[in-house]
């Protein structure tokens, strides 16, 4: 009897030690729209999910958008706050077996893989489409969402989607990529794909690393292969692959991946480079190194940027944090929360909810049973023995914001940390892509609070890893390509009770700074010198370009007719004034957010937008000290195809003739060197022609900025005399002959006067003059 009492007491004590000693949530049912018997029918094929365990996908940016995948599929726009009809395809779309194997929410569209084909549902327009471009069966799609709206790079993240066939041999599988949110796909070419061994476990765009990753599965092990330097030189570290792992990319582009199956739960904080099992705390003093060791069966999981929740078939909920150093899972139980159709989700930070659809025998619309939980409240149970959070405040203005770092730029961020009295937490700052972005952190005391707590200020300096000068070139990514990284500030070994103290995260685009632009200096204009009238330029001013001076195809050939050009004063302003006989180069200024930054010395090119070719350059390829044959507009336009001429030559296709790695031979050293700026003193020389030139200027130096910096400006060339109508040879040859005759006469006539013939000739002229005087009355009057 005593033994039995001890056993009962021990069991009671064990129950009290877990969070199950209290009620986890209050269950309630959502039932709406069923007061009146409104006829509702499901049209088309009834969709269902292929797995026997449900999934719940939430839109990371639009909190009320979610998708439930189970024996029925439900799509909600109010976070399941109303009864819903199961999702079905319209009758116009025939799919055969309406089985859904994968789903993804991309911006404002829902993507579903139904019977090995991809379908797009625009839920805002309530319109279905079949994707275009996929020619082989696919089973899965993957993508991500960026919640920093308005930035072009953020839009590109949300638009990028992969489609692939899970389990196919990776060396010969067909992978498709879409940059249109799944409307159109094209085959994705992965370098060295034919050399890879194993089956395909997934294709993902890891924006946190600016890499495409392929998951290889071979003989019970899995590892990632990456697409770009420097990670493409080797495979990632292998990890155990048991069952068919679902892979969840957590929101926020932090590079956190969650791999899970019924008996396996793995996590990676660096986009799959290192994958490790998640430890489990069953009780305050009982811990396991993995889910399989804890002998629990996972039903489904949910995650947000910083938290993880796991619902198990043992009627328990496990909770953990996803900081820089992830914590163990802690067990919550004590209430009947599991069912076969139940799914777990986060509704907010620290707010977990278990959702179960309930059929209604009277109506086709399903109700929803909801079981909300406040994690912070549960963790306050003293029986859990959870340590109190040692940090009172961690804040920074950069949290949940997006920044751009252009080439040769630097970004300064600040944060404030206030620890609890007597505690000394260690702040940690980390970038998700250290191959591209480097950081330096300084921490110092910055006064005290009213309670006497010390305030710690952190200054974070971010710069391209190339420009810190501390990394080996084999470690850094290509400087020519724009990349992305996140910066995360957290506290080391943060207690799981710090639910509301989430890490500070910002998304850094190492690429084009949209606030930058170039301006052409205009200190001396044709208007300020009285050559042109600004009022007249604004009054529908037009001018004529002679057919001998322009080529609409930009090949330097004369046109067949003159061209009338309307001058756009609102865009070009008053033209800059240039004397035709003086070599000239525009002064290019860099501006940012309306403020002057510098006079750029980067290499740039010019193209007259109307096809004028009455100008050349002061340097040839040889004079510019080119090692290889330089590029020019002729070769660029021939290779550009349908690309607009003004944008055909930019930083992406520019190759410097001074680059030692450029092995193109210098075959024509006397051709004009058409690149201005940079290391040369090259300038433009205008022909003998007055008039307006409208130039498009493009910065082509790949190491100056990631932006395609370009602008259009005008120049007025003056001082050139009109060309003579009479041919030059007709004028010069008689003039030269007359000059030679004069010189000959000046030499020969004095010499001949001293000869006998010369004296007779002289006497003849004297007699002739005397007779003329006698005959002319005017000479007689002077005597």
TrEMBL record:
GO terms for cellular component: CatSper complex; sperm principal piece. It is found in: Cell projection, Cilium, Flagellum membrane. The chain crosses the membrane at residues 732-753. Pfam families: Beta-prop_CATSPERD, CATSPERD-E_C, Ig-like_CATSPERD. It is a single-pass type I membrane protein. Keywords: Cell membrane, Cell projection, Cilium, Developmental protein, Differentiation, Disulfide bond, Flagellum, Glycoprotein, Membrane, Signal, Spermatogenesis, Transmembrane, Transmembrane helix. Residues 44-371 form the CATSPERD beta-propeller domain. Residues 391-510 form the CATSPERD Ig-like domain. GO terms for biological process: flagellated sperm motility; sperm capacitation. Its main location: membrane. Residues 1-21 form the signal peptide. Belongs to the CATSPERD family. PANTHER family: CATION CHANNEL SPERM-ASSOCIATED AUXILIARY SUBUNIT DELTA, CATION CHANNEL SPERM-ASSOCIATED PROTEIN SUBUNIT DELTA-RELATED. This is Cation channel sperm-associated auxiliary subunit delta. The lineage of its organism: Eukaryota, Metazoa, Chordata, Craniata, Vertebrata.
């Amino acid at each position: 009897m005593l033994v039995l009492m001890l056993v009962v007491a021990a069991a009671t004590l064990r129950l009290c030690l877990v969070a199950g000693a209290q009620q986890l949530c209050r269950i309630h049912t959502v039932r709406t729209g069923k007061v009146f018997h409104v006829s509702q029918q499901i049209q088309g094929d009834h969709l269902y999910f292929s797995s026997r365990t449900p999934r719940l996908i939430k839109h990371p940016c639009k909190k009320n958008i979610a998708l439930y995948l189970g024996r029925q599929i439900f799509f909600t726009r109010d976070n399941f706050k109303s009864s819903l009809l199961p999702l079905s395809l319209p009758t116009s779309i025939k799919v055969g077996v309406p089985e859904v194997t994968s789903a993804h929410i991309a911006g404002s569209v829902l993507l579903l893989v139904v019977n090995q084909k991809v379908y797009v549902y625009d839920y805002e327009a309530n319109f279905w489409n079949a994707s275009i471009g996929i020619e082989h069966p696919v089973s899965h799609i993957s993508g991500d969402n960026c919640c920093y709206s308005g930035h072009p790079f953020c839009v590109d993240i949300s638009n990028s989607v992969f489609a692939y066939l899970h389990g196919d041999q990776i060396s010969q599988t067909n992978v498709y990529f879409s940059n249109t949110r799944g409307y159109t796909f094209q085959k994705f070419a992965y370098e060295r794909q034919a050399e890879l061994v194993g089956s395909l476990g997934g294709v993902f765009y890891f924006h946190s690393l600016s890499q495409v990753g392929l998951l290889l599965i071979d003989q019970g092990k899995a590892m990632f292969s990456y697409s770009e330097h420097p990670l493409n030189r080797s495979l990632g570290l292998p990890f155990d692959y048991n069952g068919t792992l679902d892979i969840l990319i957590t929101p926020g582009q932090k590079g956190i991946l969650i791999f899970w199956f019924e008996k396996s739960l793995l996590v990676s904080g660096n986009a799959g480079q290192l994958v490790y099992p998640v430890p489990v705390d069953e009780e305050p003093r009982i811990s396991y190194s993995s889910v399989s060791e804890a002998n629990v069966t996972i039903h489904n999981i949910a995650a947000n940027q910083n938290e993880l929740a796991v619902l198990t078939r043992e009627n328990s909920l496990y909770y953990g944090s996803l900081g820089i150093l992830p914590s163990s899972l802690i067990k919550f139980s004590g209430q009947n929360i599991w069912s076969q159709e139940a799914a777990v989700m986060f509704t907010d930070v620290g707010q977990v909810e278990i959702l179960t659809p309930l059929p209604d025998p009277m109506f086709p619309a399903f109700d929803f049973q909801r079981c909300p939980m406040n994690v912070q409240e549960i963790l306050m149970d003293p029986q859990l023995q959870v340590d109190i959070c040692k940090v009172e405040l961690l804040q920074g203005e950069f949290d949940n914001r997006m920044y751009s770092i252009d080439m040769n730029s630097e970004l300064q961020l600040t944060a404030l940390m206030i620890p609890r009295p007597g505690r000394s937490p260690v702040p940690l700052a980390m970038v998700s892509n250290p191959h591209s972005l480097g950081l330096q952190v300084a921490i110092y005391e910055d006064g005290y609070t009213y309670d006497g707590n010390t305030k710690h200020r952190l200054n974070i300096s971010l710069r391209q890893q190339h420009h810190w000068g501390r990394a080996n070139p084999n470690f850094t990514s290509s400087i020519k390509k724009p990349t992305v990284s996140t910066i995360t500030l957290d506290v080391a070994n943060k207690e799981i009770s710090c639910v509301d103290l989430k890490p500070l995260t910002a998304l850094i685009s190492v690429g084009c700074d949209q606030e930058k632009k170039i301006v052409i200096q205009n200190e001396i204009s044709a208007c300020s010198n009285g050559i042109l009238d600004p009022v007249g330029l604004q009054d529908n001013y037009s001018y004529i370009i002679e057919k001998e001076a322009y080529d609409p195809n930009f090949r330097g050939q004369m046109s067949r007719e003159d061209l009338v050009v309307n001058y756009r004063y609102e865009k070009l302003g008053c033209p800059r004034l240039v004397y035709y006989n003086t070599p000239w180069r525009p002064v290019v200024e860099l501006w940012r957010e309306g403020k002057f930054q510098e006079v750029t010395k980067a290499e740039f090119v010019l193209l007259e937008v109307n096809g004028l070719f009455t100008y050349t350059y002061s340097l040839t390829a040889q004079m510019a000290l080119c090692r290889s044959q330089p590029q020019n507009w002729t070769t660029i336009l021939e290779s550009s195809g349908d690309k607009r001429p003004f944008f055909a030559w930019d930083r992406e296709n520019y190759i410097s003739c001074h680059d030692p790695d450029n092995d193109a031979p210098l075959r024509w050293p006397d051709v004009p060197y058409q690149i201005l700026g940079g290391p040369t003193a090259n300038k433009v020389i205008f022909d003998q022609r007055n008039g307006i030139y409208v130039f498009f200027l493009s910065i082509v130096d790949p190491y100056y900025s990631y932006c395609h910096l370009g602008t259009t400006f005008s120049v007025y060339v003056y001082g050139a005399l009109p060309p003579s109508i009479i041919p030059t040879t007709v004028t010069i040859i008689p003039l030269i002959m007359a000059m030679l005759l004069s010189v000959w006469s000046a030499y020969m006539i004095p010499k001949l006067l001293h000869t006998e013939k010369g004296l007779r000739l002289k006497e003849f002229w004297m007699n002739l003059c005397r007779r003329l005087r006698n005959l002319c009355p005017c000479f007689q009057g002077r005597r």
